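Field log, afternoon session.

UNIT: design team B
ACTIVITY: writing a sequence onto a fixed backbone
BACKBONE:
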């Protein structure tokens, strides 16, 4: 069985866990204590030179870091990842948007909040909130006319976008400004295979 090196707080790891639930895949989840620096130790750096979770380790020892690469690998051949080149590009478009505009802003704002550093670095926090608002507004405009991120159906694009869009309040965003994102989150949550977090960590 593939091993997923992960952490209960990681929304990037959650993407792989949520996808596995939708696909009925079994993963052995191994927690790395990020605060204790476990992802920066030599044995883990050999699995991912960037020193970050998640990492998927296959039965033959091959290691695949980067949440969206893991999602693409696991979803290959399933209905959640189209084969057609243009359709796939429409899905990838939102996966790149997630990495460049949602994750760095909602993700860092959330980490600053969870660790109390938002008060120590109000300038950094405010910058992430402003850029995150811009990203959420873009997603909201798109979802105002679309039930799902791409192709009019649930795909891996929704899974990766949901990971950080679903913790925006924890990061300090007022989601009342993004009603289409809120409605889409409810659609994602209503799917039968949905899991909030298999480690019971809501934030
Ligand atoms: N682009 C990467 C980001 C991975 C990432 O930032 N992981 C965080 C947890 S969500 C981490 O491992 N941080 C620990 C560290 O940087 O030492 C992905 O999507 O997987």
């Amino acid at each position: 069985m593939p091993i997923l090196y992960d952490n209960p707080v990681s929304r990037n790891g959650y993407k792989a866990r949520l996808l596995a639930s939708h696909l009925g895949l079994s993963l052995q989840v191994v927690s790395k204590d990020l605060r204790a620096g476990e992802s920066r130790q030599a044995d883990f750096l050999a699995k991912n030179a960037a020193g970050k979770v998640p990492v998927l380790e296959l039965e033959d020892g091959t290691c695949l870091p980067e949440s969206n690469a893991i999602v693409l690998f696991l979803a290959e051949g399933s209905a959640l990842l189209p084969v057609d080149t243009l359709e796939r590009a429409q899905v990838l478009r939102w996966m790149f948007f997630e990495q460049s505009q949602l994750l760095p802003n909602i993700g860092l704002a959330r980490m600053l909040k969870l660790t109390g550093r938002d008060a120590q670095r109000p300038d950094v926090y405010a910058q992430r909130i402003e850029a995150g608002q811009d990203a959420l507004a873009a997603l909201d405009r798109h979802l105002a006319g679309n039930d799902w991120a791409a192709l009019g159906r649930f795909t891996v694009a929704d899974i990766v976008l949901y990971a950080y869009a679903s913790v925006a309040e924890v990061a300090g965003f007022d989601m009342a400004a993004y009603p289409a994102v809120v409605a889409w989150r409810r659609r994602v949550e209503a799917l039968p295979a949905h899991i909030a977090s298999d480690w019971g960590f809501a934030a």
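LOG NOTE: The chain has a mean pLDDT of 95.
NEXT ACTIVITY: expression trials, pending approval
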